[in-house]
Specification:
- This protein has 320 residues and is α/β, with parallel strands linked by helices.
- It has a single domain, classed as Aldolase class I (TIM Barrel).
- Helix content is 31%, strand content 11%.
- The chain has an eight-stranded mixed sheet with strand order 6-5-4-3-2-1-7-8.
- The protein is globular and about 50 Å long.
- The protein starts with 22 loop residues before the first strand and ends in a 12-residue tail after the last helix.
Length: 320
């Protein structure tokens, strides 16, 4: 795997600082039932990293005293973690909004037959990956047969009430470009998704989140091997919009890796760029209880232009 971090000091991303913490994003591990081309986590079936139950306890303890009201659970496929459901249930008991970053095909994995019903019971918000609304492009990026499985999963979620207009069960979809280009206008693309998925499969959902591909891990390696890395970085830099700086997710979201280490965002986690707490190079979630991160400097490199280019990109979709 090519290391792209040493290639990310050419443009010099502007310095930024944290605001009030709103979201705790917890990565339960890198094991996944898929190996997608665009995956910035380099997740796959062969990954063994898993968060310990003790660290999950640290996350719940932090949620219990911090006032943070959103828990964003990611992976890999976070549902493969043996304590995923316990984490969801206890977070909901605390009154915390829970988001599950779901790849959809996990709903058809052995042992996950009741997963959709579990998510509904606990009013979990689902943010589901579907990088296009056509079979060819989805299967090309995520593997043969993934599109059909994803459609069946969405239909199952719809039958449970997910994505219904005005309903309480939120179902959002995530779009990623196929290659080294910026996402198109999110609102226009969302309308296309809703029209095609509705007409062809009877599927409804709430919002489409258009996210740029980050030049790191598996996607970054592909760019380097094809000689496209410098070209893509130049595209991100010249498309930078300073007005997006105020809304980037690292300002109010904290990323926690499977070992409990802290990062300003999930992308920094994958690059090994830790959040600096009191000048230390590495801090653990257990040390954050009772601390205020507002004003803390954010670790930045040139990949950060992926969040500020064009309409902007974050775990919640476009910024503009």
């Amino acid at each position: 795997m090519h290391a792209t971090l040493p290639l990310m000091r050419h443009y010099g991303f502007p310095p930024i600082r944290r605001k009030r913490l709103e979201t705790l994003q917890v990565n339960l591990g890198y094991k996944c039932n898929q190996s997608c081309l665009h995956c910035h986590v380099n997740a796959g079936p062969g990954r063994t990293e898993m968060m310990s139950r003790a660290t999950i306890g640290d996350a719940l303890a932090f949620l219990g005293v911090s006032g943070v009201k959103t828990l964003d659970i990611t992976g890999g496929a976070p549902e493969l973690h043996p304590h995923f459901r316990e984490l969801v249930e206890r977070a909901r008991e605390l009154g915390v909004r829970v988001i599950d970053r779901c790849n959809l095909t996990i709903l058809e994995e052995p042992g996950q037959e009741d997963l959709a019903a579990f998510l509904k019971k606990n009013q979990v918000e689902i943010t589901a990956s579907l990088p296009c609304y056509t079979q060819d492009l989805v299967d090309r990026q995520r593997g043969k047969g993934v599109y059909a499985k994803s459609i069946r999963a969405l239909q199952r979620l719809n039958r449970l009430g997910y994505g219904a207009p005005g309903g309480a069960l939120v179902l959002n979809l995530v779009y990623n470009p196929q290659g080294p280009s910026l996402p198109p206008d999110q609102a226009t693309l969302e309308a296309d998704y809703k029209r095609v998925l509705g007409e062809q499969h009877g599927i409804v959902f709430n919002r489409l989140l258009a996210m740029a591909n980050m030049p790191i891990q598996r996607f970054g390696s592909t760019l380097v091997s094809k000689g496209q890395f410098d070209e893509y970085m130049a595209l991100l830099h010249r498309s930078h919009r300073p007005e997006n700086l105020d809304a980037v997710m690292c300002r109010d979201t904290l990323s926690v890796d499977w070992q409990g280490a802290l990062y300003d965002c999930d992308f920094n986690q994958m690059l090994g760029l830790p959040l600096r707490l009191d000048g230390r190079k590495r801090a653990h979630l257990s040390e954050l209880i009772g601390r205020d991160l507002a004003g803390n400097p954010i670790a930045v490199r040139d990949h950060c232009y992926g969040c500020t280019a064009g309409q902007g990109s974050s775990c919640a979709g476009a910024l503009a």
